[in-house]
Write a structure and sequence with these properties.
Shape of chain B: globular
Strand content of chain B: under 5%
Oligomer: heterodimer
Helix content of chain A: 10-25%
Structural class of chain A: alpha+beta
Structural class of chain B: mainly alpha
Number of helices of chain B: 13
Distance between the termini of chain B: 7 Å
Radius of gyration of chain A: 24 Å
CATH topology of the largest domain in chain A: Dipeptide-binding Protein, domain 3
CATH architecture of the largest domain in chain B: Orthogonal Bundle
Shape of chain A: globular
Distance between the termini of chain A: 34 Å
Number of helices of chain A: 16
CATH superfamily of the largest domain in chain A: Dipeptide-binding Protein, Domain 3
Largest sheet of chain A: 11 strands, mixed
Largest interface: A-B, 61 and 53 residues
Number of strands of chain B: 0
Number of domains of chain A: 2
Helix content of chain B: over 70%
Number of strands of chain A: 21
Largest sheet of chain B: none
CATH topology of the largest domain in chain B: MetI-like fold
CATH superfamily of the largest domain in chain B: MetI-like
């Protein structure tokens, strides 16, 4: 049933865009540190529910979003993103930057200093050897690993001392910080003498350095974690964390209402329950933005989309408000850009969309698109006709498509719906720009970094031989210029005007018609403190170490 | 007898082979495939997908995959999950207890209540009781379990607060009483439909026996009604129920897809649904083969038992 949720599927693709290549600049922009808090006195139990079951407990093996919900409790990364998109250190003593010598000027040499005195849950001291092991395992040919992006560029990973590690990069790689922020460090000693790392006992009884220790798992039901009293950072503040698997969203919501669930996690409260949920006694319900934006994306190589008047007229013919309110219960926020509204780089002054069929028709008339006898406009032999595709089976999107199809027909544009199963849709059909237009949820940033070169630069079009994600084949020399320049500036205040300008140009060009920014409806019992919106991480448990009961 | 058994066994093996063949190839036709769940992950590249496909052996022709799976299976290795690399048998074993507990309880209730109701309806054919149970059975068979389960939760958990809204036990408790309290709603919801089924079958079977000559003879001999009912009628009417019970075996161990979902019961039914969702074919195939075996075993056992208890039936 979770399959019907808006954004499922495509949003993950979006989240990954984290890793588009950017200038070496953003690597040096890592900054921010956090003071250590005194260890807490953990009290009470929190039951957190997910609508999918976490079953992969080795974070370096192929896994899905929900598995990461457990990793944040058990493991630590070297550094992570906070809710403002700034890095903070976890196992690292400080975030490596150019200023503190953690990253060399050319971005090719990294050195990370680790916290001293950290131990694994089994009492073994944590050292740089564990970090080396965790950074090397993904490239082990015998290991079924989650990904190789970033790791494949690392060379000569060297342990200088138990708390110091250094490596070289074969090329500057801006999103390396984002890679580190999603690399959970696992214990080397758990793999000593293990023949096949894919079946190591560790994989089902994980040992971490995190705020919570593995206690037990009841397959198909729940995972029980207990406070790690020796946690090296802030927290934990609760004694027991139960991660409960509830496969149906209605049932999950019911158990939230009945009090069996304290915090409702992925896939959250379904939007149709929002209104009721907000009236529940003793519950806090909050709409949290996500980094993903929904749009009608054009294949900008198609003749029919060459005329700016067509793209503008189509945008005028989208009844955005009705789609958001009627189909999505008003949960998502209308947007005019790809940049999340929580971002420092978001341009709030873009022209607001209006739904105006008359104006759209006038615009097309003026541009010379003549209405044909069958109600479809035509200009210079090009009919205003195209297909639109998305994941088959995503009911909300399919309804949105039908809605858009109707209003488009009113301006003489014929949109034929051609939906495909996910594996087909997001395979070559998408990557090689074989579509006319799509409805898609994307997150185009590089983690918390605003860089989206991979999506909007004309050199990143896979269908034209570029290595990137610019499947909409958008090309504007001015945007290329702005993105390149912004990726080579270090100070956020200097970069901001460039991204503002670039968003403005894209709002004029309309390579895609922006619909809305996704949001989820999170909820928890009154008295729980901690769950915090963070568009920079994939799942809500990113700060579970500091969740607590205040009453 | 031995020849009969070996014949049945041979048939069963051929059937299992056909089931596995169809199952494997139908699954391989489904769009998506096991790796599509990773395709949208951050930093995933086509090279990495190809590498994982090769490690899991997914890049080989489907025929080769099938025979590899088959030979392992014959050697007792049911494979490992694509989703979490766990052995399939371990995964199935992890979910077996929950299903046996729920389905065992529900079936016990259904058989006891169902046969009693069925006998009573048959004996009092045409009575108010008979008509009432007939109508109720039709209603029970028509109610969608999903809806019924949610209504039961709404009434007994949310409104009245008498029973938990799902789950098999309270984490941290897990006493027998705790399990029992959690078992009530899902077991009753499941039993409801089964009671209807069993009562209808039992009613028909009883009616078949009631009109037989030997019952008339017993009556003519002046045997007390109670003795006729329990010794002559019920005893004989239960024989076809053995076959029904044999057919129930895979159901009992296969789990209830819907009920387990509504009551967040960690059983085989949900494992099957989840595995399908993840295109985790080794687990799906494991469950398919297990239930195919149970169908065959259940049938064989039923036939053997019928032959033992009913002297009219001879295996040949």
């Amino acid at each position: 049933m979770t399959k019907d949720l808006p954004g499922k599927g495509f949003t993950r693709r979006g989240a990954l865009q984290l890793f588009g290549a950017a200038g070496l600049m953003s690597a040096t922009a890592l900054s921010g540190t956090r003071a250590l808090a005194a260890n807490a006195d953990p009290k009470g139990q929190i039951v957190l529910s997910f609508s999918q079951e976490p079953t992969v407990f080795n974070p370096l093996m192929p896994h899905i979003e929900v598995d990461e919900g457990v990793y944040y409790a058990i493991f630590d990364t070297l550094i992570d993103f906070d809710e403002n998109g700034e890095f903070f250190p976890l196992l690292a003593a400080e975030v490596p930057t150019v200023e503190n010598g953690g990253i060399s000027e050319d971005g090719l040499t990294w050195k990370v200093t680790l916290k001293d005195g950290v131990t694994w849950h089994d009492g073994t001291p944590f050292t740089a050897e564990d970090v080396k092991f965790s950074l090397e395992l993904p490239m082990n040919p015998d290991f079924i690993s989650f990904r190789s992006t970033g790791y494949e560029l690392m060379r000569n990973i060297t342990v200088l001392s138990p708390t110091e590690i250094t490596w070289e990069m074969t090329a500057p790689f801006a999103p390396m910080g984002a890679i580190l922020a999603s690399t959970f460090i696992i214990p080397k000693h758990a793999f000593d003498g293990v023949e096949d790392p894919n079946t190591a006992p560790f994989n089902n009884a994980p040992i971490g350095t995190g705020a919570f220790k593995w206690k037990e798992r009841m397959a198909g039901d729940h995972i029980e974690l207990v406070a790690n009293p020796d946690y090296h950072g802030d927290g934990p503040y609760i004694e027991t964390l139960i991660i409960k698997y509830i496969p149906d969203l209605n049932v999950m919501y019911t158990q939230f209402k009945s009090g069996d669930v304290d915090v409702i996690g992925l896939q959250y409260i379904s939007p149709d329950h929002l209104e009721e949920a907000q009236t529940l006694d003793g519950k806090t319900v909050q709409v949290m933005g996500r980094a993903t934006f929904e749009s009608i994306g054009f294949n900008n190589m198609r003749p029919v989309f060459q005329d700016p008047a067509v793209r503008q007229a189509l945008y005028l013919a989208v009844d955005k408000t009705s789609i958001i309110d009627a189909l999505y219960y008003g949960v998502p926020t209308p947007t005019e850009t790809y940049m999340p509204q929580q971002s420092f780089y978001y341009n709030p002054d873009l022209p607001k969309h209006e739904f105006n069929i008359e104006k759209a028709n006038a615009l097309l008339d003026e541009a010379g698109w003549v209405m044909g006898g069958d109600g479809v406009r035509e200009k210079d032999g090009v009919r205003l006709e195209f297909t639109n595709s998305t994941t088959a089976g995503n009911h909300l999107r399919e309804q949105a498509q039908q809605f858009i199809q109707q209003t488009f027909a009113e301006i003489g544009a014929k949109m034929e719906i051609k939906n495909l199963p996910p594996a087909v849709m997001w395979g070559d059909y998408w990557m090689n720009s074989e579509f006319d237009s799509v409805v898609v949820g994307l997150s185009t940033l590089s983690g918390a970094d605003p860089d989206s070169s991979d999506y909007w630069m004309s050199t990143k079009i896979p269908a034209k031989g570029g290595s990137g994600q610019n499947t909409m084949a958008y090309a504007n020399p001015k945007v290329d210029e702005l993105l390149t320049e912004a990726a080579n500036l270090f100070v956020p205040e200097d970069r901001k005007p460039l991204y503002m300008e670039q968003q403005k140009i894209m709002r004029e060009d309309l390579p895609f018609l922006p619909l809305f920014q996704y949001a989820v409806v999170a909820g928890w019992k009154e008295g729980v403190e901690g769950p915090t919106q963070n568009v920079n991480n994939r799942i809500g448990t990113w700060n579970v170490r500091s969740w607590k009961w205040t009453s | 007898m031995l020849r009969y058994l070996s014949g049945r066994l041979g048939q069963s093996l051929i059937l299992l082979f056909i089931v596995s063949l169809i199952g494997f190839f139908v699954l391989s036709l489904a769009p998506g495939g096991p790796l599509s769940q990773f395709a949208l992950s951050p930093g995933m590249t086509q090279e990495q997908m190809d590498r994982v496909a090769e490690q899991m052996g997914l890049n080989r022709p489907i025929i080769v995959q099938y025979f590899d799976w088959l030979t392992s299976m014959l050697a007792g290795d049911w494979g490992t999950s694509y989703r979490d690399q766990q052995p399939v048998l371990t995964i199935i074993a992890d979910h077996l207890f929950a299903t046996m507990l729920l389905m065992g309880t529900a079936t016990a209730i259904a058989v006891t209540v169902g046969t009693t109701v069925g006998i009573w309806s048959a004996v009092r054919r045409g009575s108010v009781f008979d008509y009432t149970t007939t109508v109720l059975a039709m209603v029970a068979l028509s109610i969608p379990t999903f809806w019924f389960g949610l209504i039961a939760i709404y009434i007994f958990s949310l409104e009245l607060g008498w029973l938990p809204a799902g789950n098999m036990y309270t984490v941290g408790d897990g006493s027998i009483g705790d399990y029992a309290v959690h078992l009530i709603l899902p077991a009753l919801v499941l039993a409801l439909v089964d009671v209807a089924v069993w009562s209808r079958y039992m009613r028909t079977a009883t009616l078949n026996v009631i009109n037989q000559d030997f019952v008339r003879t017993a009556r003519a001999k002046g045997l007390p009604n109670r003795r006729i009912l329990f010794k002559h009628i019920v005893g004989n009417a239960l024989v076809p129920m053995i076959t029904l019970a044999g057919l129930q075996l895979p159901v009992v161990l296969g789990g209830a897809l819907v009920t387990e979902t509504v009551f967040t019961w960690p059983g085989m039914g949900r494992l099957f649904l989840d595995s399908l969702g993840y295109s985790d074919y080794p687990v799906v195939m494991g469950l398919l083969m297990a239930s195919a075996m149970l169908v065959l075993i259940g049938n064989l056992a039923a036939d053997l038992i019928v032959a033992v208890v009913d002297p009219r039936v001879r295996l040949s």
